[in-house]
C-alpha cells in the first residue's frame, strides 16, 4: 500500500462536457479520493459506468442544469454519511455530500457563489455558510480524521487573488464571506494549501473572461481543510494547473493534499 493518501477537489463545471478531462486527470494523478462540484447533471445522467471503468466507486447528488456534488473513491465504494447540510429543510440545492472513504470522513461541498450582492443570492450564501459553521464545529472536535473539501467561493485574503481592486464588489471578497471563513479556521481547521505554501501566490480558479488564464490572473477559492485529528498527517498540497490548460477546460483546476497513512 502507498505510504500517502491523496485527497483532491475539482469543480468540473459540467461533468458530461468535461468527462474526458476528468478521466485524463484521474488516470494521471490517481487521487485516492476526489470531491467534484458543479456536476450540472441529474442523478441519472451521472457517468457512473465510465467512473467505474477508471477504477473508482462513487456517490453523487445531482441537479438539473446546475450545482451537483460527487465523491469518488479509488478502488473503493464510498459509504454515505450525509446527503445534505443540516439546518434548512427547504433547501433542495445539491451542494453537500459527506462520506467515509479510505478511513477519512470526507465532506464534499459547493458553497453558494452569492452574486449578485447585495440580494437574495448573497443572503442565501451567508445562511448556508452559517449552517456549515455550525455543522463543522462538531466535525472539528471529532477524534476521527475529517476533511472539508470543495469550492468554497471565498477568496480568504487579498493575497489569494491576482488583483482585488476590480473584484471588491464581488460576493467572493465581501467582508461577511471572509469573516465566516476566518471563523471556520478558528474552530481548528487547517487550510492545507496555505499551510504548505505560506508565501506563494497560488490560485485554483481563472475566469474565462479578460484573458485570465494566459496571464495567470487567478483566485484561490477551492480549499481543503483538515480537522485537528487529520492535520498532523499533512505532507504536501498543490494544484494540478495542467488541467486548466486543456482545451475547453473547466475554469477551476484540481487541488490536492497528500496525507500520511496511519500505522
TrEMBL record:
NCBIfam families membership: exoDNase_III (TIGR00195), xth (TIGR00633)
Active site per the UniProt annotation: 110, 151 (proton donor/acceptor), 252 (proton acceptor)
Record protein name field: Endonuclease/exonuclease/phosphatase domain-containing protein
Family: Belongs to the DNA repair enzymes AP/ExoA family.
Feature type site, description Important for catalytic activity: 222
Keyword Hydrolase: yes
Site (Transition state stabilizer): 153
Organism of this sequence: Arenimonas composti TR7-09 = DSM 18010
Amino acid at each position: 500500500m502507498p505510504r500517502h493518501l491523496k485527497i483532491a477537489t475539482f469543480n468540473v463545471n459540467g461533468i458530461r462536457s468535461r468527462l474526458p478531462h476528468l478521466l485524463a486527470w484521474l488516470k494521471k494523478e490517481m487521487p485516492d479520493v476526489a470531491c467534484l462540484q458543479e456536476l450540472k447533471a441529474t442523478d441519472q445522467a451521472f457517468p457512473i459506468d465510465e467512473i467505474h471503468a477508471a477504477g473508482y466507486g462513487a456517490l453523487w447528488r445531482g441537479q438539473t442544469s446546475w450545482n451537483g456534488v460527487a465523491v469518488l473513491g479509488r478502488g473503493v465504494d464510498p459509504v454515505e454519511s450525509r446527503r445534505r447540510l443540516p439546518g434548512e429543510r427547504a433547501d433542495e440545492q445539491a451542494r453537500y455530500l459527506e462520506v467515509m472513504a479510505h478511513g477519512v470522513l470526507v465532506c464534499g461541498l459547493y458553497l453558494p457563489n452569492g452574486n449578485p450582492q447585495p440580494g437574495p443570492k448573497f443572503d442565501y450564501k451567508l445562511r448556508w455558510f452559517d449552517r456549515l459553521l455550525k455543522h463543522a464545529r462538531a466535525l472539528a472536535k471529532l477524534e476521527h480524521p475529517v476533511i472539508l473539501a470543495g469550492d468554497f467561493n471565498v477568496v480568504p485574503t487579498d493575497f489569494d487573488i491576482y488583483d482585488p481592486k476590480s473584484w471588491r464588489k464581488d460576493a467572493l471578497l465581501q467582508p461577511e464571506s471572509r469573516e465566516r471563513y476566518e471563523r471556520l479556521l478558528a474552530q481548528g481547521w487547517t487550510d492545507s494549501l496555505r499551510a504548505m505554501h505560506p508565501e506563494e501566490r497560488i490560485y485554483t480558479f481563472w475566469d474565462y473572461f479578460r484573458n485570465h488564464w494566459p496571464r495567470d490572473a487567478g483566485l484561490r477559492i477551492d480549499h481543503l481543510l483538515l480537522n485537528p485529528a487529520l492535520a498532523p498527517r499533512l505532507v504536501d498540497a498543490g494544484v494540478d494547473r495542467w488541467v486548466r490548460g486543456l482545451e475547453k477546460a473547466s475554469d477551476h483546476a484540481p487541488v490536492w493534499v497528500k496525507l500520511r497513512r496511519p500505522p
